[in-house]
Amino acid sequence: xxxxxxxxxxxxxxxxxxxxxxxxxxxxxxxxxxxxxxxxxxxxxxxxxxxxxxxxxxxxxxxxxxxxxxxxxxxxxxxxxxxxxxxxxxxxxxxxxxxxxxxxxxxxxxxxxxxxxxxxxxxxxxxxxxxxxxxxxxxxxxxxxxxxxxxxxxxxxxxxxxxxxxxxxxxxxxxxxxxxxxxxxxxxxxxxxxxxxxxxxxxxxxxxxxxxxxxxxxxxxxxxxxxxxxxxxxxxx
Length: 237
What we know:
SH3 type barrels
């Protein structure tokens, strides 16, 4: 049985090229929400008792062609999100020539040197050398910034967050236990054999892979060299 969610927030059973709309059965079978809300999706929690009813309801439910519906994330209220976008490389950039940086109003930036002999960053007329000894610099995205290569191209990791909404911390954690302070954290692998274990599940990362997580693990550990990026959602006034 293939279950789905589709717009506008409907529940369906996919059979062949059609979707049977079983929304009324699903919503009518869920317990009332109480505060504080238990982590996780109530539909997933109710699946053992729902499945036999879904098969019967799908046979009688109105149907739509699958090609005419817009599918949504199958889990509407995930308790934890873990992703490893191994083919996503836009967080890594190569600087091959001297020149000014683009400016971003209201953005906080952190630049981390990954490869190369180093680069001089001049931010608002203040010069800083990024090298293997000091590979990271945080600065305002709207500040006038100019880069000067010390000896050939460099490759860097660029982190940007919207000021007033999200802030970030970047650190190189030691091997062993990971203790992120935020519920939203990312691991950027530096080596070709990095393993992050979260609540007993290992995630192997290749060089420059990015592991994206959401949720506070009971136990997390690291084997390999990486950068830990923590995101902090700020309270709106």
